[in-house]
Hemerythrin HHE cation binding domain-containing protein (Actinokineospora iranica), 193 residues
Amino acid sequence: MIETTTETTTGPDVVELLIGQHMRIRDLFARVEESEGARRREAFADLVRMLAVHETAEELVVHPAARAAIEGGDDVVDDRLAEENHAKHLLKRLDDAGPDAPEFPDLLELLRVAVLDHASHEEQHEFRYLRRNLSPDRLAALAGAVRAAEKFAPTHPHPGAESATANLAAGPALAVFDRVKDAVRAAVGDSDR
Ligand SMILES: [Fe+2]
Ligand SMILES: [Fe+2]
């Protein structure tokens, strides 16, 4: 974990937002692990959608900024993208097996370790340097783009609240990633790429 900033602007900066999403992802893994049956399917759909929103915002907004802003940025980002691809591959195996399969818990654990290691590498090798090297205005602009993507994230359990984005969570996990990516790309526009 890296230190939080002294507040100089209103609201969390982009790094705090992303670290907050990492914590939500960790909590969603725990929810999937702890639940069974319909609740596990629902929790898994939430996890897939949160991962899609988070990794897409990083891919479209955060990693491109990091390439330009940090020393050795291309290598750092290429390593992170390789980790994200590995996690997507594991996610597809998990999704193909399905939440009721006997191998689901072992595959879930593989994915959990891959995703949380990846998140920790981002925090250590990428986010801390973004915060160090970018101006407060630029960090705030990136935060705005991540917030635009976040409106597609699952909400806390709240009946009826998710109807607007529920269709984004239907179907195979990688199709969810594709739909979320289209929606996020439209929401953030091209200004921060
Ligand atoms: Fe990531
Ligand atoms: Fe991340």
About this structure: Residues 55, 58, 80, 84, 118, 122 surround fe (ii) ion (ligand 1) (CB under 6 Å). Residues 48 and 173 are 6 Å apart (CA to CA). The two ends are 26 Å apart (CA to CA).
